[in-house]
Amino acid sequence: MAHAAVMEPPAAAEPGAGVYNEKLGMWVFLGSEVMFFTALIGSYIILRFGAPGEWARPGVVLNVPVTAFNTFLLICSSVSMVKAYAAVVDGDQQKFKMWLLLTIIAGASFVGVQAYEYTHLVHDGFLPSGIREGSELWEKVEAGTVPAATAGIYGSSFYIMTGFHGFHVTCGVVSMIWVYLKALRGGYSATDYRGVEVIGLYWHFVDLVWIILFTIVYLV
Amino acid sequence: MATTAATVGQVGHAGHVDDRSFLRKYIFSTDHKIIGIQFLIMSLVFLALGGTLAMMMRWQLGFPGQAMPGGTVLPETMAPGGVLLPEFYISLVTMHGTFMVFFAIMPLLVGVFGNFLIPLKIGAPDMAFPRLNMMSFWVAVSSGLIMLAGFWAEGGHAGAGWTAYAPLSEAPEYSGVSLGQQLWCLSLIVLGLSSMLGAVNYITTVINMRAPGMTWFRLPLSIWALFITAILVLLAIPILAGGAIMLLFDQTIGTHFFKPATGGQVLLWQHLFWFFGHPEVYILILPAMGMVSDIIANGSRKPIFGYESMVFAIMGIGFLGWIVWGHHMFQSGMNPTLGQTFMISTLFIAVPSAIKVFNWMGTMWRGSLHFHVPMLHAVAFVAMFVIGGLSGVFMASTPVDIYIHDTYFIVAHIHYVLFGGSLFALFAAITYWYPKMFGRMMNPFWGKVHFWLTFGFYNLTFFPMHQLGLQGHMRRIYDPTEYTFLQPLQPLNQFISIAAFLLFASQALFALNFILSWFTGAKADVNPWRDNALEWSVPSPPPHGNFAVTPTVYRGPYEYSSPETSDDYLPQDKRLPTDRMPASQPAGD
Predict the structure, then answer these.
(1) In this structure, is residue B424 part of a structural domain?
(2) Do the domain assignments include residue B431?
(3) CA B550 – CA A65 distance, rounded (Å)
(4) Which of A71, A201, B36, B410 could lock onto B115 through a cystine, CB 3.0 to 4.6 A?
(5) At what angle do helices B221-252 and B179-208 cross, to 10 degrees?
(6) Which chain A residue shows the shortest CA-CA distance from B553?
(7) B40 CB-near residues (< 8 Å, 6+ apart)
(8) How far is CA B145 from CA B34, B36, B134, in A?
(9) Could you tell me which residues are beta bridge partners of residue B136?
(10) Which tens digit of pLDDT belongs to each residue from B245-302?
């Protein structure tokens, strides 16, 4: 891969990480993000293991098939991100813009499906504060299919983890739209594609976090 | 050589016309030096505020139930007739801690000196991300304003201590505070964003922007310390942000994270807070240690003793800081076996700390000592840190801690490390780099007067607190005279209060010296302390972009009294005939 000067560490300096500042900065920032999600996921694990009683079984409250489709969508968007990156490195501007647009659409759809999921959950009575009395889910609580003792903490941890992930996806989509607008003006080339590579790193991170969240929140 | 570099710098400065508008140059500046000075002014204001809150607390403790002089300016909800209310007193305790930790000491060390020193000392024109740097400052200001707004909140400001333990912090039923506590959470979440932006910037800059020849083991210890601190900030602050978000949601949208009745866990807050909070303790001391190392080597005119061991000690403290948080929780009801693990890991921290203290003493041993004002403060730092460090060993031992937990012994300890440690180092650092920041010297005579008064009154204020604590005086109590067993200690409490008022009053000298020197201080030349580091090779204050020509570094920053030169110092960028060009220097440069 031929690199232009901008893609390399700043000139006239001691050897550093061997990559340009923006890429290094993104890796460092992702370190911070890992710790943020560690705080949320760690708290969930502690609360769930220390919960006073059973946790609701998978699929009773949450709609797993819809979210499984959403997970698939997000993984696909990571693939299209890689394709967009490969295209811009090869200098194929048309394919680059097409794959980037597809990534944006997939990312935005993920947020859309999550909004749909939240709307239905709230309608069914599943709230951050627990399960609303008199709602559809409340009947399941009374029937004993959803344990009452842990319903509150279930709602709290579900919404905080998926909500902050959704917020990260939204930020990613907004940033990718910004990158796309710059791409339309010819802002990236085979010799300078820093923005694409950096947002790509972020996007793969967000995708990876979701795979962990989907496993521990929806499947177990 | 230093003069030559300065001349080159000035020519470069004159050749480059600075056409930025006032707003771009001083308010929304992307220049790391201006941002550092902005942080300096912001945090000194908060330092004064935090000090004022402490004075009000000391009045109440020394003279409980009496009208505070000037207390009538406070509204009825805080101090009717000038007598502090218990609810307001507990807000004072909380806000003194919060402002001092998050808005005074932390931004002073990391925000001010991280920004000002890193690019200058590594030979870079600016930070890696100057606009993020500017954003980091203005986000910090917003966060400070949110925190201040809490004083006007209905129900008073947050009153659950700076550690905001749940369930006291979590539901208004317990503390009577709702909006104040929510603003507290919000402000710290926003501040976390600012700190994270700063940390990303510092880490990237140190890794990627060191001048040719500035290898890792030629970095000044202040930069090593700030680099390790930035890693701690990067990884610890998001944990606090996560915890504060959960706490905020518990109060506002009815989640249950810290509500035991509905499946939450109060101990979870303590784990989250201290998992952040213990690395935070080292965030508040490592940069101070680094800057003190620079100043002590300069004042002793000797190379720092054991440079590599200093670096590894910084790394060791940074690492151990992550596995000791449970020592804040010996009395929380946590598993005692776990407590023992935390006791052992905590005692290990004494090893790298002792390495540093012995190295500072080794540096001074048989040095040609120059007790300029920064050196006085730096030596006081070492002495006070030893006292604070040793009382830390007491508290790390679980059996002793059970007895002194939550007493004034703890208050004495934290002030010996945070005031005696960090703040003395900051007085040293501000005086030391003031000429580089503002181009003028601070008055050395008033500097010395300020030092001796502060050193004296500081010890008179905080040393007797050990005694109070050992006799069972609890922290955070509103009126000690309510307890029969504390009544005999009341004269000591009054003594501490009077010493504290005098300590506070002595700081007026520093404030006046700081402000007046800005306008009337003696003009500083390029290198007033005859120091080796790169910032002393450029004009005071350095121009936008710092270096006219990227400097080349040939050695570490502590070559004092070297036999290779007739001066008693040898700048890092001075090329001797025996020096080879670094491998990283591009050909033809």
Answers:
(1) yes
(2) yes
(3) 59
(4) B36
(5) 150
(6) A14
(7) B108, B112, B430, B437
(8) 21, 19, 17
(9) none
(10) 999 999 999 999 999 888 899 999 999 999 999 999 999 999 999 999 999 999 999 9
Q: Does B209 sit within 8 Å of A10, measured CB to CB?
A: yes
Test mutation, A40, A45, A55, A156, chain B, max B CBs within 10 A: A156
CB of B334 within 8 Å of any CB in chain A? Answer: no
Which residue in the set B207, B255, B550 is minimally distant from A16, CB to CB?
A: B207
Chain A residues in contact with B271 by the CB 8 A cut-off are 46
pLDDT in tens, A65-100: 999 999 999 999 999 999 999 999 999 999 999 999
Distance CA B20, CA B22 (A): 7
pLDDT, residue B525, reads 94
Enter the tokens of residue B3: 């003069």
Task: State how far residue A95 is from chain B, nearest Cα, in angstroms.
Answer: 31
Nearest C-alpha neighbor of B132 from the set B200, B192, B189, B187: B200
Residues of A with CB under 8 A from a CB of B: 9-17, 19-21, 24-25, 28-29, 31-33, 35-36, 38-40, 43, 46-47, 50-52, 127-130, 149-150, 152-153, 155-157, 159-160, 164
Residue B547 lies in a domain: no
Report the predicted TM-score, pTM, of the whole model to 2 decimal places.
0.94
Q: B306 in a domain, yes or no? A: yes
Residue B221 · residue B307 · CB < 8 Å: yes
Question: Which residues of chain A neighbour B249 with C-beta distances below 8 Å?
Answer: 128, 156, 160
Binned at pLDDT 50, 70 and 90, residue B6 comes out as very low
Cα first-last separation, chain B: 18
Provide the pLDDT confidence category of residue B225 given band limits of 50, 70 and 90: very high
CB atoms B208 and A13 under 8 Å: yes
CA–CA separation, B199 and A190 (whole Å): 31
The total domain count for chain B is 1
Q: For residue A147, give the nearest of A63, A64, A61, A18 by alpha carbon.
A: A61
Q: Please say whether the beta carbons of B208 and A9 come within 8 A.
A: yes
Distances (CA, A) of A199 to A22, A121, A169, B315, B448: 10, 31, 12, 31, 53
Selecting from B207, B235, B242 the residue whose C-beta is nearest the C-beta of A40 gives B242
Q: Are B270 and B168 in contact (CB under 8 A)?
A: no
Tokens 């790193």 belong to residue: A201
Angle between the N-to-C axes of helices B286-300 and B424-438, in degrees from 0 to 180, rounded to the nearest 10: 70
pLDDT, position B4: 39
Contact across the interface for A17 and B268, Cβ inside 8 Å: no
Of B208, B212, B254, the CB nearest to A21: B208
Domains of chain A with bracketed CATH = 19-219 (1.20.120.80)
Q: Which domain holds residue B335?
A: 23-537
- B381-428 tens-digit pLDDT: 999 999 999 999 999 999 999 999 999 999 999 999 999 999 999 999
Nearest to B369 by CA among B295, B431, B309: B295
Q: What are phi and psi of B544, to 5 degrees?
A: -60, 125
Tell me whether residues B200 and A43 touch, CB distance under 8 A. no
What type of residue is B205? T
Q: Do B234 and A50 touch (CB under 8 A)?
A: no
Percent of chain A, pLDDT > 90?
A: 85
Q: The domain that contains B359 carries what CATH number?
A: 1.20.210.10
- Whether A17 and B208 have beta carbons less than 8 Å apart is answered as yes
User: How many angstroms separate the first and last alpha carbons of chain A?
Assistant: 43
B249 and A128 in contact by Cβ < 8 A? Answer: yes
All residues of chain B having their beta carbon less than 8 Å from the beta carbon of residue A29 are 196, 200
Counting one residue from chain A and one from chain B, the pairs whose CB atoms sit within 8 A come to: 141
Summarised one tens digit per residue, pLDDT across range B516-535 is 999 999 999 999 999 999 99
